[in-house]
Specification:
Layout: H1 3-21, E1 23-32, H2 48-66, E2 87-91, H3 95-108, E3 118-119, E4 125-126, E5 138-140, H4 160-169, H5 173-181, H6 183-187, H7 190-193, H8 207-220, H9 230-248, H10 258-276, E6 283-288, H11 290-299, H12 302-305, E7 318-325, E8 338-345, E9 357-358, E10 368-370, H13 371-378, H14 386-393, H15 401-420, H16 426-452, H17 459-469
Helix pairs in contact: 2-3, 8-9, 10-11
């Protein structure tokens, strides 16, 4: 072997070692639903195109995180047959989003064929249906239910303060200016949408609904369908992006981004479970709508660095948070050796050439953050518990009724403690107060007796007097009796 060839081999081996130095300990994926019918024609449905987009996205993540041949395989994850203890999937109660989730999971863990067959004691073989289709359950998340039938996604958050905050945008000067300046343009769209959207609703106020209807038509309607020009469609998209981003996030009133706050809390909680469980929990996937992307983009400072993060992500887009380490060996390293990398991909991953791209969070420059720093920075805005959500949103009914009672009880206890911590207890103070009151009453009674010439009479004497006089006992003067303490 020549020196040059030996050097080439050594370089190649070193590159392999560098590539394999990083280990993926776990990941959290937030996935947007696939292509669907228009919201203006609710109830919305996932299209065949949308189903394919999600299935292909699931296959993409199988190749990245599940496949044994991937350099980014999650350490210790089951490669062929899903282990339900390793994976958690969730989605709101929404037909489009849940069906998208099922398609994604089919691609993530595809059917395993005869490997799913089961042999019974009597020797017979049960063939698994659908070629060994693997079932992965999805749990419900609180917010986002019915979001794809709703043109205003903030209302699906059920957060009172967030709804008020979003409504405040409609009173802002920037909104009013666009509402007025685009009035003629939106009215010119009447020939394209008049059968569905009346002219009195053609304005910037319904920017997303209008664009969404025309966008769906541009994908699914026949070539004979009249549509605005490509430049007009781009203009409508820019306006829809502006409208939705401002409804989903405000730097001056961050509760507007409650969807992103909640997601951030879920990410921290899930990745922390991966660490504390020693890697038993490996992959979390949540399915949702574009508003969660937008609100998280704003909170994480992504929109400040890249204007593309102020627009709605395409169907089947993905956000991922990877838990990584460069520590050698196997097993869960110490927290000081663990980092987090945020990655985003706009649109579906149908072609193998497209990859996730890493972006820095929180206006930093590094795309990989130490775990402790990621947790600290994320918790500046994250909502991680139901009681925290209730307090942040100002909700006191429904699931928040118990939190409101606990808060009230806590205030009462705190008040009681503060009242008694300054000296005597409340019980002692109460007894003293009662004695003082009785003393005042006794003094007042004595004064009355002196003024009116009254005197104390024994009860027995009074009874004898009553019997002797033959008067009705009920008419006798009442005896004065010292109150007991």
């Amino acid at each position: 072997m020549t020196i040059q060839s030996a050097f080439t081999l050594l370089l190649a081996l070193s590159l392999v070692d560098m590539g394999n130095a990083e280990r993926i300990l776990g990941a959290y994926i937030f996935q947007r639903h696939g292509d669907r019918t228009a919201k203006a024609l609710a109830p919305t449905k996932l299209t065949d195109l949308g189903y394919t987009e999600e299935y292909m996205s699931g296959s993409f993540f199988n190749n990245r995180y599940i496949s044994s041949s991937s350099a980014f395989q999650i350490e210790g994850i089951s490669t062929e047959i899903v282990s339900l203890s390793q994976i958690t999937a969730s989605a709101p109660q929404d037909t489009v989003i849940q069906n998208s989730g099922q398609a994604f999971l089919q691609g993530l863990y595809p059917p395993i064929g005869t490997a799913a067959n089961e042999t019974l004691r009597n020797g017979s073989t049960v063939q698994s249906p659908l070629n060994g289709y693997q079932l992965i359950p999805m749990s419900d998340v609180q917010s986002g239910s019915g979001s794809e039938d709703n043109t205003w996604l903030q209302s699906t958050s059920s957060c009172s303060k967030a709804e008020v905050s979003s409504n405040n945008y409609l009173f802002s000067n920037s909104y009013k200016d666009l509402l007025k300046s685009t009035e003629t343009m939106y009215q010119s769209l009447s020939p394209y949408v008049s059968s569905i959207i009346p002219s009195d609703q053609l304005s910037f106020k319904n920017a997303y609904t209008i664009w969404d209807l025309l966008n769906v038509a541009s994908i699914h309607n026949g070539t004979g369908t009249a549509l605005p020009s490509s430049q007009e469609m781009k203009n409508l998209l820019v306006l829809a992006n502006n409208h939705e981003y401002n409804l989903a996030y405000s730097s001056n009133d961050t509760i507007r981004a409650v969807a992103g706050m909640t997601l951030a809390g879920q990410v921290v909680t899930a990745l922390n479970k991966t660490i504390t469980s020693g890697g038993k929990s490996k992959l979390n996937i949540q399915f949702g709508a574009y508003s969660t992307f937008l609100s998280y983009f704003g909170l994480a400072g992504l929109g400040a660095e890249n204007v593309n993060f102020t627009g709605m992500p395409d169907y089947a887009s993905s956000m991922t948070w990877e838990l990584v380490t460069n520590a050698s060996g196997s097993g869960m390293p110490s927290e000081s050796d663990i980092s987090v990398r945020f990655m985003f991909h706009n649109g579906t991953s149908i072609t193998g050439s497209t990859q996730l791209q890493a972006y820095p969070l929180y206006n930093l420059t590094a795309t990989t953050l130490p775990w402790t720093q990621f947790v600290h920075d994320t918790n500046q805005f994250a909502i991680s518990t139901q009681s925290q959500w209730c307090q942040s949103c100002g909700n006191t009914t429904g699931i928040c009724s118990s939190s409101a009672n606990e808060s009230s009880d806590g205030s009462s206890s705190s008040s009681s403690s503060s009242s008694s911590s300054g000296g005597m207890s409340l019980a002692v103070a109460g007894v003293i107060g009662a004695m003082v009151t009785l003393g005042v009453l006794a003094g007042f009674t004595a004064l009355v007796m002196i003024v009116f010439g009254l005197r104390f009479v024994r009860k027995s004497t009074l009874a004898a007097f009553s019997r002797g006089s033959g008067s009705d006992a009920s008419m006798a003067a009442p005896a004065f009796k010292r109150p007991s303490v």
